[in-house]
Fold these 2 entries.
Entry 1:
Amino acid sequence: MDREVIVLNEERNVTLTSYIQPVGGKFDNISKRPAIIVIPGGAYQYCSDREAEPVAFAYLKAGYNVFILRYSVGVHATWPNPLSDYEQAMELIRSRADEWNIYKDKIAVIGFSAGGHLAASAATMSKNRPNAAILGYAVTLEYLAKICEHTAPDLVSAVDKDTCPCFLFSTRTDRTVPIENTTKFISALVEHNIAFESHIYSFGPHGFSIGDSSVLKQDVEISNRAKNWVSDSIEWLKEVFGDFGDGDLTKPKYRPRLVDDGEEYLSADCTIGYLMKNQDARNILLPFMKNTMEAIEDIRKWEKVDKSIIESFVSKTTLRNLSGMAGVADEIVEDLDKQLRQIKNQDL
Amino acid sequence: MDREVIVLNEERNVTLTSYIQPVGGKFDNISKRPAIIVIPGGAYQYCSDREAEPVAFAYLKAGYNVFILRYSVGVHATWPNPLSDYEQAMELIRSRADEWNIYKDKIAVIGFSAGGHLAASAATMSKNRPNAAILGYAVTLEYLAKICEHTAPDLVSAVDKDTCPCFLFSTRTDRTVPIENTTKFISALVEHNIAFESHIYSFGPHGFSIGDSSVLKQDVEISNRAKNWVSDSIEWLKEVFGDFGDGDLTKPKYRPRLVDDGEEYLSADCTIGYLMKNQDARNILLPFMKNTMEAIEDIRKWEKVDKSIIESFVSKTTLRNLSGMAGVADEIVEDLDKQLRQIKNQDL
Amino acid sequence: MDREVIVLNEERNVTLTSYIQPVGGKFDNISKRPAIIVIPGGAYQYCSDREAEPVAFAYLKAGYNVFILRYSVGVHATWPNPLSDYEQAMELIRSRADEWNIYKDKIAVIGFSAGGHLAASAATMSKNRPNAAILGYAVTLEYLAKICEHTAPDLVSAVDKDTCPCFLFSTRTDRTVPIENTTKFISALVEHNIAFESHIYSFGPHGFSIGDSSVLKQDVEISNRAKNWVSDSIEWLKEVFGDFGDGDLTKPKYRPRLVDDGEEYLSADCTIGYLMKNQDARNILLPFMKNTMEAIEDIRKWEKVDKSIIESFVSKTTLRNLSGMAGVADEIVEDLDKQLRQIKNQDL
Amino acid sequence: MDREVIVLNEERNVTLTSYIQPVGGKFDNISKRPAIIVIPGGAYQYCSDREAEPVAFAYLKAGYNVFILRYSVGVHATWPNPLSDYEQAMELIRSRADEWNIYKDKIAVIGFSAGGHLAASAATMSKNRPNAAILGYAVTLEYLAKICEHTAPDLVSAVDKDTCPCFLFSTRTDRTVPIENTTKFISALVEHNIAFESHIYSFGPHGFSIGDSSVLKQDVEISNRAKNWVSDSIEWLKEVFGDFGDGDLTKPKYRPRLVDDGEEYLSADCTIGYLMKNQDARNILLPFMKNTMEAIEDIRKWEKVDKSIIESFVSKTTLRNLSGMAGVADEIVEDLDKQLRQIKNQDL
């Protein structure tokens, strides 16, 4: 492993510490590695060592190249300085990806508390988006961001369709960063159809980092599950990025989007409601829908359910799912899908 | 173990199957047991065996007495029939608690899908509230409840201050019960200051039950973390109820409430905003607050932060937490707490 | 689940309690189930409830059909009564396997302490051998067996070539059944080339059963790893028996034998020493061996190693492994293997 | 973390790479750290990178200071060169322990394959013994040691009363280092009353290191439990060394010795057989033994058991355990213990 401290901004005391592992040789199952940028917390006043190297070690063991970003804090924390630090770091890593044997499109960020605010900023509003984000008891709400650094932005409202897959964890009893910072961000991810996983543990203090005895006092009251996020997040990254295989990474385990309403072409994975707004799609679907709805209503005996509820339900369901409920043959769905994929999505 | 099928309602085909374990003898660390009522899913059309005994075995191994409730479904599912079935079951269990060596106040419910809807109904709107609720990919939103059974109520709006601690799990890609059913219920719990834990796994199908090979086909696409809810929920119940000890259960691991704004008497665990609305509390706090706020503002250099943000922040923070941030001595806080505890909460 | 107490021997108070789970329907991934016979401990004086149903629940959850065997104890424990009880139980289960939807050749035993002695007897000396055996802090040494029941046999010397795969666990500080009972049995398994897995945990008392709070007092001093045998043994059984798949079980994960010296025909998986004792095999191998040994000696620069050590090493190595060390092409090994497989093993 | 490559022997290319973590500051629960020396394998021909840093990262995350020892291999591997390298490394670490904030008496070794041979040499025959040893699929038998390096010694016969607590793991199907290397070493530990924990996994290849996808090809056939040794060994070290607490480490979790026959003074934790050989102890025990034996024989109805078996059993049992079986009051045992502790052990 090569470790190097790269100064990104001398005046603001911003550094990127790289931990680069070898490939090939005794690691002949690995030709390139994914990477992760660790962003420690500290209320935008400092960068906590407890959320730096202990975190790095976990991902190093998992085979990642790791970078610790010590960003602008204290008097230098005026926005967008910290975000600019991130942009500079990600640009640097991607520009040196070949030299460091890093997959350019498999670079995650992980941030804690205020560092989680910065990691979530990277995920939602940066030019150089990360490919996955792990957010630990992250600040996301405007009032709390501003209590840390008065120029820092709200992030719940920043979630957009290009936000990367996110993994969130926190403890419900966090008295420093109230749990709404997690739950409201999750709601925004849901609304924007962004892939995520989340773990809200029953109790534990703010700032528990990796939750091991190596970073916590013995008498700290914390759920014994709170430390599971470490191995869980590593497994999650394997799903999002793929796992080490035989030279190259294996295929990722799932498609991030649940519905394809935002894709360039329509498909059977768009919602009925979305498809029906397009005249071409409507023409294709109408004869099919009639039979399908009859089939469904017949199965479920929905005669007593308010029509508007059924319509709302159908409207939010994808063509593929509705067909599944109605027992429509796969061939028919594939045929509709093929027709729909020739229609450009006019909303984009 | 004694297993018995108790008919609760012959006409509606409602049964409660009891699995009662012995105490004493070779189980001399146990004099009574906590219990759990398992409520299988099935869209209010049937009760799924896959969400019945496999679940029961997990809690039996953990030392619980278990009951499986097969409630009113199909033509009998008109509301409030299923909830009445639950009420009848819980009344029966509590009335026979001595005979069965069950702690009357340590009885949980666990429900899946539509059974999760019923378990969440028990948690939020029943007369005989359970002491904890585990909700697996539960239906909670009105439109979806009504799609299952047109008379079933919305549950997000039903969360109240007496809702029991909840443990929620689901997969984000559930195409039958969309993830909003979990996230919106969580938001309601947060709003009402109810203790909870939640795990939303990255991907997996609806109805995965305990997530073992014993209930899933080999090629089902599901995150390898999705089955962790079983052992996690058992550990969580140990926190909420206490663990088997030396005859009696040990002390629960945490206080469910984060703030005590709803308690009978005021205290240092109420929020500043709540305390300030009470004239007596206000008189006690004002001299203290002045010093504390100066201390805090001095520490955090908040001169640039908008006053309204700080006020909002302080207003939502408990007296105990604010004192911690300001470095106020414990004795002073204890003294204030003692004074506040003599003031009755006029809002109740 | 159907639970039934079957009386095997009224006079000796021997019973077999069956816990039979359904197949098909909502368990449509399962057409038949593997099974396990639980044999509680109790020094051949009684059958401990703590090692009966809590164990059964774990395997029931994993999808097994379970039987608890309460065998001859106290005045009835004279050998071979307990073993006869086992034989009777296994015969009964196999004879009713179709009715109970059980795989006849996927029936394990699990025994604890003296029950472990009986389970190990089943594994090594019964007529109706089980297909896998899990031995928990089992008595295997003659002196200790006789201290429990003066007619009970030594089991270390009973291990034979037909002994089934074994999974052993115990704590090194067990003061009732000293750890030699585990280690000497393992050595006998090694000597007879029998598949096994073993976990000896650092410390813990005798009789800890599933190691959960549901069976242990709070202040018991025991390693936090000691309870891992439960899930580990379930995973191990999946390797030995295969896992639930799509109707039928999947293929087992590994071949139990390391070397095939005892098989009906010779092969490349026999040791060189064994092959060389057969004149036909010798003729096939000699030209090959000369080149191979030269290749190996060249690679490893063994000129200084005592010839007898190399000969002993080669003699104990299989043809396939030696070829691997010498970098022999796979085709050549496959060709030798094909020739050897036509030679009958004359030792049998 | 400070990383430094320290040259121990330039001619033989021996280095010690140190990874030293900070104490105090944000690690205010830590004033000093335990340490571990990682010794990679490679048949005494090279040092495998796959068993170096990936292992180091695991213990770094757990809070340890870590050293990787690259010892004499190939032409330099003539014994005792590798052991001398170890001695030099351990001397250096202990001499700089204050500077590096390391507990002098909490320094473990971990070795793999041939590196496991060197780690086991350190544990059994070095001048500067480690305080714990983790042995991964280690070579311990003479013939195999000599196949690697013809001057390397047998280690099974080297186990002595000063051997440190050991944690062993391997896979039963290891075709390079046969499982006897593990089982025979364990037997020697048992014979010498040395504390240990061991995990022999059902199947997997030689050299699987930490068993993660970061060091293994995707299609490697290995039990899914084989990687558990990493976290298990960390938990085991917490038992042996104590865990991070509030500045200092907590108390170790167990006493390594089962019986105190080798201690300076006699006690109730010596075996009856050992005590009876000492005339003073004999005088104290005889009146007590008579009653106790009668009590035991009465309880267990041992009239039919061969006298010599009972005598052998009693002889190997400690006074404390025998008293427990006979139901002797604790006060009586404590009184005997006090008397025995005044008798010097004449065998030492």
Entry 2:
Amino acid sequence: MPTRSSKTAPHPLDPLTADEVLAASQILRNHLQCADDEIRFKVIDLAEPPKALTLQYIYHNGSAPNRKARIYYHVKRSQALMVAIANLATHEIENKYNSPDSQGPVDADEYILVHEACNNHPAVKAEIAKLKLPPNARVLNDPWAFGTDDTNERRRLFQCYMYIALSEDDEANHYSIPIPLAPIFDAHTLELVQLQKLPMGTGDEVDEETQPWDPTKPVEYSAGILGKDAFRKDLKPLQVHQPQGASFRTSGRRVEWQKWSFILGWTVREGPVLHDVRYDGRPLFYRISMSEMTVPYGDPRTPYHRKQAFDLGDSGFGLTSNILSLGCDCLGHIAYFNGVRVTGDGNPMVMPNVVCMHEIDDGIGWKHTNLRNGKSSVVRNRQLVIQCTATVANYEYILAFVLDQAANIHIEVRATGIVSTAPIRQGLHVPWGTVVAPGVLALNHQHIFCVRIDPILDGDSKNTIAYDECQPVVNEPDLDPYGCAFRVNTTVIEKPGGYDLDISKNRTFKIINEGRTNAISGQPRGYKLHPVPSQMLMMGPETFNFRRGIFSSKAIWVTKYNDDELWAAGEFTNQSREDTGMAVWTKRPENVKNEDVVLWHAFGVTHVTRPEGKSF
Amino acid sequence: MPTRSSKTAPHPLDPLTADEVLAASQILRNHLQCADDEIRFKVIDLAEPPKALTLQYIYHNGSAPNRKARIYYHVKRSQALMVAIANLATHEIENKYNSPDSQGPVDADEYILVHEACNNHPAVKAEIAKLKLPPNARVLNDPWAFGTDDTNERRRLFQCYMYIALSEDDEANHYSIPIPLAPIFDAHTLELVQLQKLPMGTGDEVDEETQPWDPTKPVEYSAGILGKDAFRKDLKPLQVHQPQGASFRTSGRRVEWQKWSFILGWTVREGPVLHDVRYDGRPLFYRISMSEMTVPYGDPRTPYHRKQAFDLGDSGFGLTSNILSLGCDCLGHIAYFNGVRVTGDGNPMVMPNVVCMHEIDDGIGWKHTNLRNGKSSVVRNRQLVIQCTATVANYEYILAFVLDQAANIHIEVRATGIVSTAPIRQGLHVPWGTVVAPGVLALNHQHIFCVRIDPILDGDSKNTIAYDECQPVVNEPDLDPYGCAFRVNTTVIEKPGGYDLDISKNRTFKIINEGRTNAISGQPRGYKLHPVPSQMLMMGPETFNFRRGIFSSKAIWVTKYNDDELWAAGEFTNQSREDTGMAVWTKRPENVKNEDVVLWHAFGVTHVTRPEGKSF
């Protein structure tokens, strides 16, 4: 079918340009008729056009839907989160509402303000003094989005976990020396709400009087501090050369590679997004994205019960994406893509090279050797990797969409960086984490991700989700005298909801187009999901952890498509009290069979830290 | 600790050399005092010395145990499988026994003889004639190891599945045109036992009179037949350069790479084996190997119920390993290792380059970006891959041991090649497989592998297997008022047996050394297994499929170590009636806690073939 993605005007699904971000902030200013410094912008992201219009445009010569922007902002002196949709074609605000009960995501400006407020507050300084730190100690803090433990709380709060660094070098690893202080600040007033102390023992109790710091050695990672001699010297260079360049072609945000074609979108919230994904000219997916992630911690001691980050909804994989520099993260021929975010004062800030794209060789893709003549045929497995690295304080998440030459899309997340640490009295152990250094506890936690898959198999919005199970034939001796037979039983999903995996039945989910038949197999054409079997959320339905993100409780979710239903735990996750996403969508008594349907897959890791055996 | 692996004499765990294979066959000849052509050799492999003696030698300056060879052979005119252990130091046969109730593995000589006997047998030719094949048709057959369906059967049988090729080119893909004949031959007498026909319909019934072939197009893969134009032209070269060479060092079969040290063993049965595996000077494993694989088919129609290959025990990953040629299968700087097998007449046959070793770059290994200064630290994930490709008729298995820089060993199997096909009347579908081309059925089946892990953590033979489960704290409101807490519960395994995985509890198995404590965590030093959750064998305990290889029924097995207990389904799997491996070892009422213990992991795939959408 025709593609019109190479037109000069932005494609309806292209990310916002810097000009568009600026235009959006201007449209809002003009609409609000207030002075420049009266508005504090938090987020400006593409407000995608309705799917129906976009498909008309892409596949049926429809006219291009208007470009629109979604704006989160505050009118200064107000704590109310405001949301506006700016039409970039008509220069009008189409929809404006405040969301007084919600907290917007963390923005860069407030993060810095809270950090400073905590470090400079006299009461905090007075507590620090009691630690009797060595003269070279520098005090730092990481403001954390405030997990929910009170449905009546309406203030915008940050819990500032505090650490020290024992070096003037700004690369010193403060996470290796946590101190027992986590003051709570109000992000709007920048007032100290509570000078919270951290437990050093097995229970909730904290030291009546903050005790002097019990010295321990820092654990550093920076080459600048450790020096070259601290690193392995016996690894010889491995270089990837592509003398003819890469095998992909780009035109604007449209990428073409090995029968694949897609638009590489990007949002502040999600980072890279794949739109209008086609293989060999056949439409497969309207949109594929990392929708959300939640990181609940398993330590009941106050305030750790509040540690539950939603790293997309609370901050954003785009916003926190690393600026990638050539030769640093990837090998071979690399293409980079920029992102754009808004500054507090409404100006666009280009984030260069936040997404990289390159090819890799993944070993043998297919091989057969003819044992009669010894001749072998080999195809190597070339892959295309679209990748970003999001830094959320101590953690790094490396998100990659990996496409191969056999029509597979692999969605990979690597969790790396530094574990979230807490202080503990030296010599003590608690069930809630692993001591990883004297006086340092790595808390047990989970990372549960949710991928959103919006299919349009062979161009039809009407698709069906079904699962196959392989089950043995039982008690049919006439049919199966030796008991070796098994059948594939297919169950079609007709209602929205959450579904479990079942390894024992090899339960595999697939997207099928009941309207089109595979000429060979005689079965509906389909695309299979290879799920990642993971332990789901351990916290029960009565907990805030569960109620804030029910997507984390089941591996598979099926919902009926609606425009703007992109985020698994709802639009506003920061200090959320209830899930306004999956929890709502899956309660609708809708038919999802042979309908415009969305498939969601939740997966993750339960992380119980294993320390190295090296002694201190 | 000292390593003496670089001595000129072979290390006790080195594979047999060509000279040693020849010496072993000579020792047996001399012992048997019979004419050269009176003996037909099947297999000569290293008979490993007792673990106790070998550890004494490696770690405590003990003397080198004698080198010994295990020989499978037949005295001609006898069908009895004979086994002898030849001492290469004393030149004596130490142990000789026949195994009349067992069938040895398939050997190359008989495979060719059976193939010829089938293709040339007048009765077979007469049936072929009824197919009225086009003049350019060539008839081929694949002799299959004969799965068990009769406990009284003692003949050595092969089922010859027949196909045609429609080209003189010897690269023509005969698997794409199966014909409804599968004669059974006796491998000793080469007599036709049964002119078995294959069902073309939904049931067992076969055509009374073999019907003329219903023409279908072949599906070819060979570049020689398809021509260059059939392949993608838009993939640009990707080259790996290692200007300073590889980072590994070898001395004999001892390999040193990135804190790793191991002896790269090899057997005809298993292919590559890792011995005496150490990390940073610390012993981790005495032996790591692919122990067995079973491939049961899920089609109850005769004779498909007999399709259950044990691709290590029936043939051997070493015996079937491809001769790898530089630049063909791998990129970068590659080291190759040879294997040696015995010919039927007792001569050594060197199999050049059956194992390759090279480094790969697996993307980012660790990264952290300091959000305060934007500086990032990145470590790439360099890995060492030890790999072989085994061709078992239509299938290829790519077995790789992948070592990384964080003390992980990844064991990877890629199943590739061509699916096992059967004829089906055009237009029909059956529940037992997927029609992948007109008249061609790909039968549903499973591949279940079993890895054997023999640990010596920190040099102690006494280790323990335990599993951790992450479970929520329930009904302890005083401890856990918000319900977020979870604990890690550890269960120590004290008895041999099979154990399930449990994703819902994040059950993870680990090897621990109860005698040594991690100085930081205060817990026993351990090494964790990241299992592959898979559907296990579907066939029930009453079936031959189950009784021949119970390892395939559970993901985890624990046994007490005994010398020579290396093969999960027992020594002789070909036409086996009972599992003489795990089934026996796990019934022993032994303690395995803080003992010399072996950990086994079974994993695999249930393969329901998905055809491409391309039309015919």
